[in-house]
Q: What sequence folds into this?
């Protein structure tokens, strides 16, 4: 091969039109896969609707003409003093035993649930990622202690901590957020720590270190971006867990104290009246379960989109993909001299 | 021999854990709250003199370290103190009365949950992508998204209420002692068991399914099949044993979650066990009862973890007890 020929080839490469191949970042690829996932998109829409309802709760209250914590003994209670069924006297979903508007209360309950879900996930993610990164990167005795601590947190009965804090400080929203965050960060931290342990041995980290990067730069600029995928999945899945957790604490009287309208509080009240007022139990339960299912489905969808190798947790859409897979590969070109494909 | 040494060591360290937990809980509860408790007990209109007398009667006026010393001394002998309510009955007799209720819920629930979780997991792993597998996956998703108390309340509304309104008293709530026969006992507890089991079984179905699918891809399974063993023997004798280890270690982690589930279930169905006692003691400020509950919970977690570790070593020949 002569020199001029190499030069010619190099020039041809340089002159080649810059189209055809378009670089896509990991996030763009993820989004493309997620967009094709009907279940995930449907869940996203459901979540947006619930969030919109939560934000616009005062507007709904104004529309219904009822405040969330006001009792309406004249219109909201039946002649025998019980809750009225859905559709009576302008109570869309009926009332509870005090004659409060169930519809308005369920809408207001979404505010607490979403707020607790998002805030605790944020706190737990920041704490879990930082602690996991630091101990995974530095290793040694700090790491040993943290690993032990994470194990004990994960095995600790949450109910004991919740009970104890409720005894000492009285139940309140900040305590709920504290308890849930405390039991959520450990799982995130464990995953991050494991990943950091393996990533820090890679060559590009070695390269960064030889270029003079300090430990903090390596941890948060070089390692962290490679951890975002699993962290995002864990965070999405910890929102429904936190919502369930909050409702359970409310139900046991260890959470947000009544009369604040939360799904857990409404359902705790419904416990004594389900035999006379099914709506009192069914509507808040539906709101709660639809919300957690939507977040769980979205979390599963995000995980599948991040990592195409994982098996789909929800079966919908699988048939379609299989069809596409069998249809898409072009027929292999018949190479001269190759064996004919066996039928 | 190794097992005995292991058990002794674990029991000793378990006692240390119990001591730490009870000390922490004692100081947390008693260092701060005495005034509030006395006020709650004496009523809203109590004068200072009455408040002081209540405090003195409960021994809350002594220095905290003296109280702690008394607490340690009597706890070691199994005396858990007197309840502030219920006519000052000994807490130990409340525990004696209500522990069988909690234990009944716990044992039945755990058995049902493991049986359902594992068998559904095994069936869907061995029939991956079948209709059963897909239905199971949907069930798991709903189970994971459903809080325990919501499931319990829905069962009350959908099963208990229609059956009893129509005169079929097949399921009950509350608690009937084992002494009145197994059938009445089980009738009262079947709904609590189902509730406790369903939510937890979902996690275990997912876990055992994934773990068994992984194990079935291992070389030693191919070897077993190549030896000409039946598929049944390959799955139940060879694969399952390896696949169960992650399930068992998850069990150790879930002991704490399980305890929360039992309390919720007791509350929903009015079983009247220790969890319900603890929850109502919170609103009363009945500190000795809550303290006893915290210590029993810690003891339960310690014992359950020892059992899980022994199981682990039995299942996986590579794990040595030490």
A:
């Amino acid at each position: 091969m002569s020199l001029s020929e190499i030069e010619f080839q190099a020039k041809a490469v340089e002159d080649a039109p810059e189209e055809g191949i378009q670089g896509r970042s990991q996030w763009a690829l993820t989004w493309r896969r997620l967009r094709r996932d009907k279940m995930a998109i449907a869940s996203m829409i459901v979540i947006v609707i619930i969030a919109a309802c939560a934000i616009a709760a005062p507007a709904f209250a104004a529309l219904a003409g009822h405040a969330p914590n006001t009792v309406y003994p004249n219109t909201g209670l039946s002649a025998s003093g019980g809750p009225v069924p859905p559709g009576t006297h302008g109570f869309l979903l009926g009332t509870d035993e005090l004659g409060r508007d169930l519809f308005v209360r369920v809408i207001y309950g979404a505010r607490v649930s979403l707020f607790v879900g998002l805030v605790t996930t944020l706190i737990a993610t920041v704490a879990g990622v930082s602690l996991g990164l630091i101990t995974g990167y530095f290793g040694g005795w700090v790491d040993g202690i943290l690993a032990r601590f994470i194990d004990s947190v994960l095995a600790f009965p949450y109910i004991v901590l919740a009970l104890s804090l409720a005894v000492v400080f009285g139940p309140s929203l900040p305590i709920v957020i504290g308890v849930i965050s405390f039991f959520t960060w450990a799982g995130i931290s464990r995953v991050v720590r494991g990943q950091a342990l393996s990533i820090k041995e890679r060559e590009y980290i070695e390269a960064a270190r030889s270029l003079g990067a300090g430990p903090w730069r390596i941890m948060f600029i070089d390692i962290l971006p490679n951890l975002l995928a699993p962290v995002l999945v864990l965070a999405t899945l910890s929102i429904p867990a936190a919502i369930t957790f909050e409702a359970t604490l409310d139900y046991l009287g260890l959470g947000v104290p009544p009369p604040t309208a939360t799904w857990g509080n409404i359902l705790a009240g419904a416990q004594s009246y389900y035999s006379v007022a099914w709506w009192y139990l069914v509507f808040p339960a539906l709101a709660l379960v639809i919300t957690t299912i939507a977040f769980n489905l979205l979390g599963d969808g995000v995980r599948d989109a991040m990592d195409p190798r994982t098996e789909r947790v929800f079966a919908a859409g699988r048939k379609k993909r299989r069809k596409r897979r069998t249809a898409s590969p072009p027929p292999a070109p018949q190479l001269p001299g190759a064996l004919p494909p066996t039928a | 021999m190794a097992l005995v040494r292991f058990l002794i060591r674990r029991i000793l360290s378990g006692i240390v854990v119990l001591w730490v937990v009870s000390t922490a809980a004692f100081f947390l509860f008693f260092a701060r709250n005495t005034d509030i408790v006395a006020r709650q007990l004496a009523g809203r209109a109590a004068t200072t003199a009455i408040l002081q007398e209540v405090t003195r009667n409960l021994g809350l006026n002594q220095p905290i370290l003296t109280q702690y010393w008394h607490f340690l001394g009597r706890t070691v002998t199994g005396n858990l103190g007197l309840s502030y309510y219920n006519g000052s009955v000994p807490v130990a007799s409340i525990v004696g009365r209500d522990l069988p209720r909690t234990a009944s819920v716990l044992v039945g629930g755990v058995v049902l949950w493991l049986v359902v979780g594992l068998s559904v997991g095994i069936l869907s792993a061995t029939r991956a992508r079948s209709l059963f597998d897909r239905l199971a996956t949907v069930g798991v998703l709903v189970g994971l998204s459903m809080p325990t108390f919501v499931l319990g309340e829905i069962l009350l509304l959908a099963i208990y209420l229609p059956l009893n309104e129509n005169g079929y008293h097949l399921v009950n709530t509350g608690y009937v002692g084992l002494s009145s026969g197994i059938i009445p006992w089980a009738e009262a507890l079947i709904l609590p068991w189902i509730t406790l089991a369903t939510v937890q079984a979902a996690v275990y179905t997912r876990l055992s399914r994934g773990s068994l699918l992984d194990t079935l891809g291992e070389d030693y399974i191919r070897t077993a099949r190549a030896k000409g063993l039946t598929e049944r023997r390959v799955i139940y004798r060879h694969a399952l044993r390896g696949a169960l280890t992650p399930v068992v270690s998850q069990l150790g982690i879930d002991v704490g979650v399980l305890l929360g589930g039992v309390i919720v279930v007791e509350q929903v169905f009015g079983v009247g066990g220790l969890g319900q006692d603890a929850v109502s003691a919170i609103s009363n400020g009945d500190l000795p009862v809550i303290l006893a509950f915290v210590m029993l919970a810690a003891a339960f977690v310690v014992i359950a973890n020892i059992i899980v570790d022994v199981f682990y070593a039995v299942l996986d020949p590579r794990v040595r007890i030490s």
Notes: Residues 311-343 of chain A have pLDDT under 50 and may be disordered. Chain A has one domain: 26-309. The two ends of chain A are 44 Å apart (CA to CA). DSSP finds 13 helices and no strands in chain A.
